[in-house]
Design a protein that fits this description.
elongated; alpha/beta; 3-stranded mixed β-sheet; Ubiquitin-like (UB roll); 8 helices; 12 strands; 2 domains; Rossmann fold; 9-stranded mixed β-sheet
Length: 280
């Protein structure tokens, strides 16, 4: 028999590749290591230098506030806004809580929104959006209402009064039904928007808008205080019907008890007998 074991061992030994050891290039390795060390050291020195420079600038007051600029204010004085911001000259720009400063400014009754931003190296910019009064609402005391329907300020002596007055909602109703109150105010503002776009009978002809929970809105004319029943919808169509006869009605407003526009395709006009007799 053939000696398979000896043959296999001989074959394996013959096929095994001899590995030759290669000498390391120590010079090349040294240069590579040196470059890595220099790069790392340079980065560390740059970072340290930047931190040191920043610290020196902070301590020197380079980023201290030198000017606060207020933009877009009209009604509210710049001084009032600066006082509300509580920013002092010399304060570090990095120490300012911009969001909190904006919130403080927005506590002013006439400021709807305040944006505060840093303007490097030494300024702060405050941009404000002021409220625009749209109407007055009678809640036991008189308050301004803005275009968004928000009740925002109680009237003081000397405040402008030439706005339509929203009535029929007292303070207790507001506290008990805040959502319904908001809907009622928004409905009144919607009617005002429609009136504002008209020419023959418009917002200038109205002194009061009264809200009744069941009946809806009742306008009162500036001349004679005549109630005009408007309901809760279809204001454009109803005002079109009113304007179609308003030239004839206007001279007789002082003798009218009310005008009802809630009946489809009609204008119901009720004479006030007492007024008619007194005038005759």
């Amino acid at each position: 028999m053939r000696d398979l074991k000896s043959h296999k061992q001989k074959k394996c030994k013959t096929n095994r590749r001899k590995q030759e050891k290669q000498a390391r290039d120590w010079k090349k390795l040294f240069h590579r290591t040196l470059r890595v060390c220099i790069a790392s050291g340079s980065g560390f020195l740059l970072a340290s230098g930047a931190l040191l420079t920043a610290q020196m600038l902070l301590e020197s007051g380079y980023f201290g506030v030198k000017q606060v600029r207020v933009e877009h204010q009209v009604r509210v004085s710049e001084g009032d806004i600066l006082d509300a911001s509580d920013i002092a000259i010399g304060d570090s720009l990095f120490d300012l809580e911009l969001h909190m400063i904006g919130r403080k400014i927005e506590e002013h009754a006439w400021i709807a929104k305040a944006e505060v931003e840093r303007s490097f190296p030494d300024q702060v910019v405050i941009r404000v959006v002021e409220r625009e009064s749209r109407a007055i609402i009678d809640l036991d005391y008189l308050y301004y209402v803005d275009r968004a329907g928000e009740v925002f300020k109680m009237l003081d002596a000397g405040d402008e009064l030439d706005y339509p007055v929203i009535t029929g909602i007292d303070r207790q109703y507001l506290l008990d039904n805040p959502d319904k109150t908001q809907d009622s105010v928004n409905l009144a503002l919607q009617l005002m928007d429609v009136l504002e776009s008209r020419t023959l009978f418009n917002l200038d002809d109205i002194s009061e808008i009264h809200f009744e929970e069941q009946e809806g809105l009742v306008m009162h004319t500036r001349i004679g205080g005549v109630p005009v029943r408007m309901g809760k919808q279809g204001f454009e169509t109803k005002l079109n019907r009113l304007e179609s006869i308003y030239d004839d009605l206007e001279p007789r407003l002082m003798a009218l008890k009310y005008i009802d526009l809630n009946v489809t395709d009609r204008v119901i006009v009720k004479l006030d007998v007492k007024r008619t007799v007194s005038r005759s």
